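Protein folds are increasingly written down as C-alpha cells. With that in mind, we are printing a sequence and the C-alpha cells encoding its fold.
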Amino acid sequence: MTDVKDQGACGSCYAFSGNTTLESDIAIRWSKAPLRLSEQEIVECSGGYGNQACNGGLEIWNWAYQRDEKAVSDADYGTYEAGRGVINDCSASGKTKSA
C-alpha cells in the first residue's frame, strides 16, 4: 500500500477513496509495487463526469473518468495540494477538459 494520504481542507474524499481502491487492485492483480495515482488530477479534471473539485464527488465518477482518460500517477500529473482545485482546470498537465 501507499503511504497515508491527507485530503486537507478539501472535499475530495471521492478522489482518495477511489484511487486507493484502484491502487490496491493494480497491486494485487498484477503483483506490482504500489502505484501512487494522482488525486489532484481527479479533483481538477473529472468535472465532466459529475465531480465538483473540492465540493465533493463520487468514486464511481472517479473510476469512469480514469477508465476513459487513463489514470496517471503523481509523478505524471503533480502532487496533491489541498484546496487547489477548480472544476475542469487541467492546466497542471496540459490535459484537455473532460466533457
In short: The first helix runs from residue 13 to 29. The mean pLDDT is 82. Helices lie at 13-29, 39-45, 59-69, 74-77. The domain at 13-77 is CATH 3.90.70.10 (Cathepsin B; Chain A).
